[in-house]
Amino acid sequence: MTPPPFAAPASTALPNSAQAPDLTPQVGEYGVPQPSAAEPVFTIRDLSVYYGGNVALKEVSLDIMPREITAIIGPSGCGKSTFIRCLNRMNDLIPGATVTGDVFYHGQNIYAPEVDPVAVRRRIGMVFQRPNPFPKSVYDNVAFGPRINGFKGDLDELVENSLRAAALWDEVKDKLKKSALNLSGGQQQRLCIARAIAVEPDVILMDEPASALDPVATVRIEDLMQELKKQYSIIIVTHNMQQAARVSERTAFLYTEVDEETSSRWGILVEHGETGLIFTRPKDKRTEDYVSGRFG
Amino acid sequence: MGRSPSPGESAGAKVSDINSARPAGRRLWTNRLASAAMLGAVLLAMIPVGLILSYIFAKGMAAMSWEFLSEPTPFSFRRAEGGFLNGLIGTGIMVGLATLVSVPLGILAAIYLQEYGRGLLANLIRFFSDVMTGVPSVFVGLFVYTAFVLPFGFGAVMGAAALAIIMLPIVVRTTEEMLKLVPLELQHGSFALGASKFQTIIRVVLPSALPGITTGVLLAVARAAGETAPLILTALGSLTITTKLIGEPISALPLLIFDGARNPFAAGQERAWAGALELLALVLIFTLLARIVASRSKISS
């Protein structure tokens, strides 16, 4: 599947020098069957983020596979949110943030100068830590994305389908015109997922989507993610290791490095791979310490 | 706590435990004294407001009549007939024009300051807005007098210009404060759906801030409707009804109240009281209407 390019096709063709190198995770070496040889959705190379000159995330290289859930785990302050925000250029909105390195989305560098970040975000949706529905009706929340994108079609049907896909339709079908702020926290978060689905993205980024929710609402979100991954590639940041182990196919472990002299801190990618392997047979001592609960 | 009472303990023991935690002695009386002092301060502050409102209402109702509302001012203060229709029309025209100019400009300036403005220019605009809020309104009148009245003569447009200059900084600053209150998370939610900055401002930021912006606009309108000094220098005042925008002096309610109140004749003074009540009612009705409109535009909860 080739998604439409962000900008004029001619200008976005990759120069040979910027071709994404093949660093697909070697999942086969532990005897786990190699999944279908799909093209990665994201090929991330040497991604670093600076906030006002201080490095926050250092030289992350990672591939994200399609139609899977990839979990980003790590202790607080290790740059998980910073990392995920690079994938739809949300870091552009933070004053003083600079990003170096390359993020190839289906082979196309989303940090290339001619790429419009607004177009990137139309393909790569995002769900935030705290539910953030607009102070509008349930219907208008879901219809927001299609409307601003000039959707010409049956909006009612699209809203219904999006709400059904987010497992929220039955709960809100009688109060579509009521304020979204009256929904419970878990319903609001599923509404935000419906809102993201309504623009028919390719990837959904979730930044600790269940951390503000109670266990019952959390289970519903996790069940929903299992449904959604049939259609979308999902990347979830979570500080909850059980959640990562439950829902994801692959896990990337980020960790904070500290410079003893300047006591500055930044996040690095320690290792990534099949979730089962990360949690049972990690290659790195730090990963093992973290997933076994020895720190963090 | 030395011990935690077990569930089996008698109810009496628990109640005495709770009572022992009650503030007693000095703390209790300090609390009561402070509460009483605050209540007293509120009541004290309400006294002048209550007196002014009740006095205007009593005096104004005594002089209020249909004739007052529907007739222009007589040429002699002594005559106990006529009303302030000329002033009502003048105030409507001038405040309306000033609102039409200052509200869109002020909201756009506030959006610029909050969403786009960085560095020296934005700080300068913010600084001068603050300065303008504090400028005595008679200075604004003098400015418009020298800049527009001297070459073009007195008129409604000149009065409206002075009022707009007075309203603009109020609209800018209150709108900016309201835009600041819109959570960044909402904007990020909009950006994450592929909205441009313009779409985010128009469809998310402004609607979220609308109730607050309405309050700011109302403050500005109420202030403009009550201004007298700048209108003396720009609209001048008139005893006849006119709807001409330029080239002819026009009246306004505050001007007629001022004229009526400072003349020695009882009939003129009574009209001033009725005029004060009319102006008060006008601002009040306008405030209520705007509030209703603002709350209608929100969605039912």
Walk me through what this model shows.
The complex is a heterodimer of chains A (296) and B (301). Chain A has 296 residues and is of the alpha/beta class. Chain A has a single domain, classed as P-loop containing nucleotide triphosphate hydrolases (Rossmann fold). Chain A has helices spanning 9-12, 80-86, 117-123, 138-148, 155-165, 169-172, 185-197, 215-228, 241-247, 275-280, 285-291, and strands at 42-51, 54-64, 69-73, 97-105, 108-109, 124-127, 203-207, 233-237, 250-258, 265-274. In chain A, strands 6-7-8-3-9-10 form a six-stranded mixed sheet, with helices on both faces. With 301 residues, chain B is mainly alpha-helical. Chain B folds into two domains: 25-63; 66-297, Orthogonal Bundle (MetI-like fold), CATH 1.10.3720.10. Helices cover 76% and strands 0% of the residues of chain B. Chain B is built from twelve helices and no strands. The model of chain B has no long low-confidence stretch (mean pLDDT 89).
Can you lay out the helices and strands and say which pair or pack?
The complex is a heterodimer of chains A (296) and B (301).
Chain A: H1 9-12, E1 42-51, E2 54-64, E3 69-73, H2 80-86, E4 97-105, E5 108-109, H3 117-123, E6 124-127, H4 138-148, H5 155-165, H6 169-172, H7 185-197, E7 203-207, H8 215-228, E8 233-237, H9 241-247, E9 250-258, E10 265-274, H10 275-280, H11 285-291
Helix pairs in contact in A: 4-5, 4-7, 5-7, 7-8
Chain B: H1 11-20, H2 25-63, H3 66-70, H4 85-116, H5 119-134, H6 137-152, H7 156-181, H8 184-192, H9 197-226, H10 229-234, H11 253-261, H12 266-297
Helix pairs in contact in B: 2-12, 4-7, 4-9, 4-11, 5-7, 6-7, 7-9, 8-9, 9-12, 11-12
Annotation, overall tally of beta strands of chain B: 0
Mean pLDDT of chain A equals 87
CATH topology-level fold name of the largest domain in chain B: MetI-like fold
Structural class per helix/strand content of chain A?
alpha/beta
| CATH topology descriptor of chain A | Rossmann fold
Q: Summarize model confidence as the mean pLDDT of chain B.
A: 89
- Rg for CA atoms of chain A: 19 Å
Secondary structure: helix percent of chain A: 25-40%
Number of domains of chain B: 2
Query: Could you give me the name of the CATH homologous superfamily of the largest domain in chain B?
Result: MetI-like
